[in-house]
From TrEMBL, chain A:
<comment type="similarity">
    <text>Belongs to the GcvH family.</text>
</comment>
<dbReference type="GO" id="GO:0005829">
    <property type="term" value="C:cytosol"/>
</dbReference>
<comment type="subunit">
    <text>The glycine cleavage system is composed of four proteins: P, T, L and H.</text>
</comment>
<protein>
    <recommendedName>
        <fullName>Glycine cleavage system H protein</fullName>
    </recommendedName>
</protein>
<feature type="domain" description="Lipoyl-binding">
    <location>
        <begin position="17"/>
        <end position="99"/>
    </location>
</feature>
<dbReference type="InterPro" id="IPR011053">
    <property type="entry name" value="Single_hybrid_motif"/>
</dbReference>
<dbReference type="InterPro" id="IPR017453">
    <property type="entry name" value="GCV_H_sub"/>
</dbReference>
<comment type="function">
    <text>The glycine cleavage system catalyzes the degradation of glycine. The H protein shuttles the methylamine group of glycine from the P protein to the T protein.</text>
</comment>
<keyword id="KW-0450">Lipoyl</keyword>
<dbReference type="GO" id="GO:0009249">
    <property type="term" value="P:protein lipoylation"/>
</dbReference>
<dbReference type="InterPro" id="IPR003016">
    <property type="entry name" value="2-oxoA_DH_lipoyl-BS"/>
</dbReference>
<dbReference type="GO" id="GO:0019464">
    <property type="term" value="P:glycine decarboxylation via glycine cleavage system"/>
</dbReference>
<dbReference type="InterPro" id="IPR033753">
    <property type="entry name" value="GCV_H/Fam206"/>
</dbReference>
<dbReference type="InterPro" id="IPR002930">
    <property type="entry name" value="GCV_H"/>
</dbReference>
<feature type="modified residue" description="N6-lipoyllysine">
    <location>
        <position position="58"/>
    </location>
</feature>
<dbReference type="GO" id="GO:0005960">
    <property type="term" value="C:glycine cleavage complex"/>
</dbReference>
<dbReference type="InterPro" id="IPR000089">
    <property type="entry name" value="Biotin_lipoyl"/>
</dbReference>
């Protein structure tokens, strides 16, 4: 099941692990991405707090943790090739995986249709 | 090919396929007297030097032992005239405030009066050394003392630290003083609040001083959300950093209320004074409850910057923070002698947090800034603020009918006008407008900052431009914006007439080449 935040992160839930990245819309707004700073594996991050930084030719932006949890894995491919976030934002360009401390937090996120409507309203 | 332009580095416009400026190719690749210039490594030779060195006697003993270099270092040399020409040719491809209008928002690229330069070159200021005996540099110490005194007067603050060397360095000075003041009362706090309308250096400074940074949102009208800020205040908040006027070009009119609320919970108020040029002579930040504020002499007080000279960022401090000011500072004794207070002056130095620089700060900038102040006088400085604000509003109101101005309804702007890229056609963006302005002969405005506005364009004309110059800019700016609104495809290829066409900024950032590879 895929959820979305109003900060343009997506989150895929598979069992007790969630994969997080930024949306196609977000990468389009950021422009060419030149650097991604990922969290440390093992870090505990609260929902809504800074988890990663994505830097494009225009600006550096924070990526927030969509839910509370512990970082279990980061995408090693982004270090070598940050452009993956532009070419494959919602697949190969994922940022990190994390545990799900409170499944209830997922209820506050948008589903695909909800996010689509949200973006159209911007 | 044995033409002088051996690198084969030709202006792209010579080769343009769009039919524009396509004269017959020249043998050299040059275009009349605007000369192309290869890199030093392409024109230099290893066997040439611009300096006369005595010949080495191969029989002379050396003390280098096994450390003597056995292979040539490979650095190229040029003769003196070649060196002068190399840098002069490159400088002709540069653009600066001495060449034309430079509306780079937030940077305050104003004219640097030549009187400043004349004063800074007086031998008593220019040819002295920081370690010279203080009795021999009384005039220079008096300049520092007097400039500091005027900065206190203009800001309504009791103390000033003169040594910080630029805006962000000044921010660090202020935040370190705040940290020292908290720690002196055994109250180590952890959080610094920074609104979205603040300068980007503010959160960086707080993080560098080991504080956790928390954002405070902006209101739809582009100011600090006072309710959100008050809701976040508490005993863990060390300070709030507010840029005033802010990066949306607006005066934070609730500043006093914010400052009182911060003081009520035992925090301090840092004001980013980078935009002081909009309020100098009009508003004294001390009256607004500021505890620390840096002043960019290179902005408000017209000293050269942006490649033209170093910055200088003195910090004015409130009574509460003054004891923690960094060393050294200049004092005047009863006999009228100026002297420096240093580490060894235990009684006088107070509980200073230490020092930020080896010496007293940017002497050359102090002289220029004091010259600017004294040549303007109190009435003139007031007019600096008035004209800076008038010029920015003139641009705001001259553009808002065709260009999205998100805060135009928030009242007059201060020293800079902020626009966004809404309604541009054909996938055109702020970047295309900036490149189009280069073709029109203007340095672009600040783009994509502040982040609160989509495709931000921040235009700061400064007070030193005439109405005629601003009118010319508005004509050019409107023409480029009209093309963007109409979705003019050609704009995507701009600039056409710059020495280089559109550069691969993404490639440069993703795969930077940091050394010459031949």
């Amino acid at each position: 099941m895929r959820y979305y935040t109003d900060e343009h992160e997506w989150i895929d839930v598979e069992g007790d692990i969630a994969t997080v990245g930024i949306t196609e819309y977000a990468q389009g707004q950021l422009g060419d991405i030149v650097f991604v700073e990922l969290p440390e594996v093992g870090a505990l991050i609260e929902q809504g707090k800074d988890a990663a930084v994505v830097e494009s030719v225009k600006a550096a932006s924070d990526v927030y943790a969509p839910i509370t949890g512990e970082i279990t894995e980061v995408n090693p491919a982004l270090e070598e090739d940050p452009a993956l976030v532009n070419t494959s934002p919602e697949d190969g360009g994922w940022f990190f995986k994390m545990t799900i401390a409170d499944e209830g937090e997922l209820d506050g996120l948008m589903d695909e249709d909800g996010y689509k409507a949200f973006v159209e309203g911007l | 090919m044995n033409a002088p332009n051996q690198s084969g580095w030709k202006p792209a416009m010579e080769l343009s396929e769009d039919g524009m400026h396509n004269g017959p190719a020249t043998t050299t690749g040059n275009r009349a007297l605007m000369l192309e210039e290869p890199l030093l490594f392409e024109i230099g030779r290893v066997d040439v030097t611009g300096v006369d060195l005595p010949a080495i006697d191969p029989a002379a003993p050396t003390r280098l032992g096994g450390l003597a270099r056995s292979e040539p270092i490979g650095l190229v040399g040029l003769t003196e005239p070649e060196t002068v020409r190399h840098y002069t040719r490159l400088s002709r491809q540069n653009y600066g405030i001495d060449l034309g209008f430079f509306p780079l928002g937030s940077c305050t690229m104003k004219h640097n009066p030549r009187l400043n330069e004349k004063m800074a070159r007086l031998p008593g200021f220019a040819d002295i050394h920081p370690l010279a005996p203080q009795s021999t540099v009384q005039g220079a110490l008096e300049v520092i003392h007097q400039l500091g005194g005027w900065l206190c007067t203009l800001t309504g603050m009791p103390a000033v630290a003169m040594s910080p060397k630029a805006g962000a360095h000044g921010e660090l000075c202020g935040i370190l003083a705040i940290r020292a003041a908290h720690e002196a009362r055994g109250d180590a706090r952890e959080v610094v609040l920074v609104p979205e309308s603040a300068h980007g250096t503010n959160p960086a400074t707080a993080a560098f001083a080991n504080y956790r940074v928390e954002d405070i949102p902006a209101t739809p009208e582009g100011r600090v959300d006072v309710a959100a800020l008050k809701a976040r205040l508490g005993p863990d908040v060390a300070a709030v950093m507010i840029t005033n006027p802010n990066t949306c070009g607006l005066f934070e009119k609730d500043f006093r209320e914010i400052a009182d609320a911060v003081h009520a919970v035992g925090g301090y108020v840092y004001c980013d004074g980078a935009n002081f040029n909009a309020i100098v002579g009009k508003v004294r930040p001390g009256d607004l409850g500021v505890d620390a504020m840096h002043i960019n002499l290179h902005k408000t007080f017209s000293t050269p910057h942006g490649g033209g000279g170093p910055g200088s960022g003195p910090v004015v401090l409130s009574e509460a923070l003054a004891p923690y000011a960094p060393l050294p500072f200049v004092r005047k004794d009863d006999a009228g002698t100026f002297y420096l207070v240093e580490e060894e002056d235990r009684e006088e130095r107070g509980p200073t947090f230490g020092r930020m620089t080896a010496f007293h700060g940017q002497m050359g900038m102090f002289t220029r800034a004091l010259t600017y102040m004294l040549s303007h006088g109190a009435d003139g400085l007031k007019q600096v603020a008035e004209d800076a604000v008038l010029n920015a509003n003139y641009i705001l109101r001259s553009m808002e009918d065709i260009l999205h101005a998100p805060f135009a309804a928030s009242g007059p702007c201060m020293h800079e006008a902020l626009f966004g890229d809404k309604d541009f056609g054909g996938g055109l963006s702020t970047l295309d407008v900036a490149k189009g302005l280069i073709d029109e002969g203007y340095h672009p405005m600040t783009v994509y900052f502040p982040l609160v506005v989509h495709g931000a364009m921040l235009v700061e004309p400064t007070e030193t431009e005439s109405k005629a110059a601003i009118d010319q800019f508005i004509t050019a700016f409107r023409a480029v914006v009209e093309r963007a609104l109409a979705g003019d495809e050609a704009l995507k290829q701009a600039p056409y007439y710059a020495p280089r066409r559109r550069l691969d900024e993404t490639g440069a950032a993703r795969k930077p080449k940091l050394a010459y590879e031949g």
